[in-house]
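Reading a protein record of the kind used here takes little practice once its layout is understood. The fold follows as a row of integers, each naming the local backbone shape at the matching residue. With these conventions in mind, the following record can be read line by line:

_____
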Amino acid sequence: MMKTTLIIAIAAMAAYGRAMECEDGLCRLPAAKEATYTVLSPVPEAAVEPIKAAPRLKSLDGKTIALVGGSFMANVTHPELKRLILAEHPTAKIYLLSEIGSAGPYPRPGVVRREKDEFQRKLKEFGVDAVISGNGGCGLCTPKETGSCIAAEALGIPSVMIAAPGFVKQAVNTAAAAGLAELRVAEYPGSFASYTREELVENTRKVLWPQVKAALVEEGTGKREQGRGKRE
């Protein structure tokens, strides 16, 4: 019985990524803390070219902005962001996903992804000055939408990623793994799918928009999320 309990405990430790507290044959997780996981990447860090974060803009006046991504209620948040941008900066020009596309997941070194290349080509062709991408609300869509920010920053174009609280770190680590050690993130105050359309619009106006502005305008302002120095 004791041997069986030990095997179960070892399996649980592997699953939860933290040590178990065991006494008298009974094992339990320690007090709730953020789990830490160690992952061995098959791609050596030396193979990843560093991407320096682009300088922020002095203003959004007269700027061309790509507002891209189609995940997690972007059909509600993005039109409202476009409205807010044009209300404060009527000379700005906005391109949406249907007009300019997106990069998709950023490719690893040595991998060619036509979607990313085409997106970068359009950023140049349309003279884009800034990129806003989102919404990161799941484990699959977050890397996909973060890819557009990485692709923009690689061209020297400032960007900001929109993500729900549980996926901000995933976006940051995704960018860091691609060489972008600093990703600007606008954090939505909860799970996108849990809000009504009216609440999404209200939170876009009061919570997201101020963060988006701060992330794109003037170097040194806005919320910065630092990627880890090494991939774990």
